[in-house]
Write a structure and sequence with these properties.
Antioxidant, Horf6, Chain A, domain 2, 7 helices, five-stranded mixed sheet, Glutaredoxin, four-stranded antiparallel sheet, alpha+beta
Length: about 220
């Protein structure tokens, strides 16, 4: 994905939102933050997505994670649309801010432009993109979906859990990992260091190569 991507610092933009003006670095502060764009207000998939973000807001809050939506429609449009979002999702409140970008400048700087889609006036539209930003203001993970495919919020929660564990311990999470399952110890950690760092112990997979790089532990 060209442009802003994993490892890059989030631009400290000032944006107008449904909860007033915010500067992105001030909003992120010392927390993990999910910034997600949607192609347009009053559209079907986006309505279900922002509604599901509202449903999952408590799960993200429990993990100390903030949410920030983004669309090219203006703030007044967002506020009217929120009523539909909440009604569709049985009253789950949209407690997070939704940023406006009528000039299509923010989506360019955040690498959230759909490369193929344009609106009826020929202007670029936002992609269905999502960045997870760390407390250091750097992009930790990015998702990019086509307009036809809605995001899976369980997967967003799962990757937040993975990222937060990786930040706290020198570990990584294997394929299909779920919270509570074993993680793998980073290759940069020697066996001697692993014994000190993981006193609960670890298990090394027996592989044909004889190399001991696949080490599992619980954290």
């Amino acid at each position: 994905m060209p442009g802003l991507t994993i490892g890059d610092t989030l631009p400290n933009l000032e944006v107008e939102t449904t909860q007033g003006k915010i500067k992105l670095h001030d909003y992120v502060a010392n927390t993990f933050t999910i910034i997600f764009s949607h192609p347009g207000d009053f559209t079907p998939v986006c309505t279900t997505e922002l509604g599901m973000m509202a449903v999952y807001a408590d799960k993200f809050s429990e993990r100390g994670v903030k949410l920030l939506g983004l669309s090219c429609d203006d703030v007044e449009s967002h506020k009217k649309w929120i009523k539909d979002i909440e009604a569709y999702n049985n009253g789950s409140k949209v407690t997070y801010p939704i940023a406006a970008d009528p000039n299509r400048e923010i989506i360019k700087q955040l690498n959230m432009v759909d490369p193929d889609e344009v609106d009826p006036s020929g202007q670029q539209t936002p992609s269905r993109a999502l960045h997870i930003v760390g407390p250091d203001k750097k992009i930790k993970l990015s998702f990019l979906y086509p307009a036809s495919t809605g995001r899976n919020m369980d997967e967003v929660v799962r990757v937040v859990d993975s990222l937060q564990k990786a930040c706290k311990h020198k570990i990584a999470t294997p394929a299909n990992w779920k919270p509570g399952e074993q993680v793998v110890i980073a290759p940069s950690v020697s066996n001697e260091q692993a014994k000190e760092m993981f006193p609960q112990g670890y298990k090394t997979a027996d592989l044909p190569s004889g190399k001991d790089y696949l080490r599992f532990t619980n954290v």
